[in-house]
């Protein structure tokens, strides 16, 4: 029988998930700000920053949080699908809450928390889990 894991292990993966996402957000914002300061259109700058953050977040979650062994072609395609769902959930949640409250910060805070929780569950149960082979029977 395996000994029980300490209670702190229970929170290790979610905390790593948040740390990876936080670092990816920092990369997004720094990239965006540097590009804007160099004269790049703000829309192009934020799109470029978001793309850099997306790649950094994928690598952090793949290697650091979930220590996945899936081939990148499988894990990254799953990651992109879950990122699209998270984006949609964030937009829908924000829109619904904002329509009722008219409060931007509250709406975004709740939408972000909801999307983050959903993204974590998707990553844990789907994106980075499964067989490491591409055999289809």
From TrEMBL:
Single GO biological process annotation from the record: polysaccharide biosynthetic process
Key word Cell cycle present: no
GO cellular component: plasma membrane
Keyword Mitochondrion: no
Transmembrane segments: 15-36, 42-60, 80-99
Location of this chain's protein in the cell: Membrane
Matching InterPro entries: GtrA_CellWall_Glycosyl, GtrA_DPMS_TM
Domain of life, source organism: Bacteria
Topology of this chain in the membrane: Multi-pass membrane protein
Name the record gives this protein: Putative flippase GtrA
Annotated organism of origin: Marinobacter pelagius
